[in-house]
Inverse folding.
């Protein structure tokens, strides 16, 4: 019985299981029984059945105008696709030190000004904060969509913006 348990344990190592539940969208072809593969070989793309998620980055100067739960609209760069509404779910408390999504980087055609450091990481030039939103009306997307986000924000007078910029420059130049 111990030998049988050992064989079953060894056999379990060869089963392919996804860590998420979802639908297989891409499958590597051709695979046949008995094929040997390396451990890092791409086999399939699995898309979870969760509602669509919007990830955006906002400038530090706009952070005080946005709150969790705020409504917004996502306008895809592909004009064939319709815009959709969403609600802000979470805003990170700290600015993003590096961009993990290269398609957002200005060096890769995105809208966030970045520079590349020695290790190849994309570092934002200005502080940006990661925002996550969910959209109940968005079906599971077939691919990552790039676009523009418009958020409902609090109003702020021009005078208060000028004052905030003045204080920011004063603090940064006086080395506080």
């Amino acid at each position: 019985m111990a030998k049988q348990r050992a064989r079953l344990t060894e056999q379990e190592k060869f089963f392919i299981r996804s860590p998420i539940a979802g639908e297989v969208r891409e499958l590597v072809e051709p695979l046949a029984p008995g094929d040997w593969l390396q451990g890092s070989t791409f086999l399939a793309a699995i898309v979870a059945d969760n509602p669509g998620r919007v990830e955006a980055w906002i400038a530090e100067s706009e952070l005080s105008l946005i709150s969790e739960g705020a409504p917004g609209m996502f306008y895809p760069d592909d004009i064939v696709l319709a815009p959709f509404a969403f609600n802000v779910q979470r805003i990170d408390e700290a600015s993003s030190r590096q961009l993990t999504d290269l398609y957002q980087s200005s060096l890769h055609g995105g809208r966030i000004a970045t520079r590349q450091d020695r290790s190849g990481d994309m570092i934002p030039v200005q502080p940006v904060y990661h925002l996550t939103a969910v959209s109940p009306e968005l079906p599971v997307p077939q691919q990552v969509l790039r676009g523009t986000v418009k958020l409902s924000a609090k109003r702020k007078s021009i005078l208060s913006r000028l004052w905030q910029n003045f204080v920011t420059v004063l603090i940064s130049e006086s080395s506080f």
Q: What stands out?
A: The helical segments are 2-12, 158-174. The first strand starts at residue 22 and ends at 27. Residues 2-48 form one domain. Residues 29 and 43 are 9 Å apart (CA to CA).
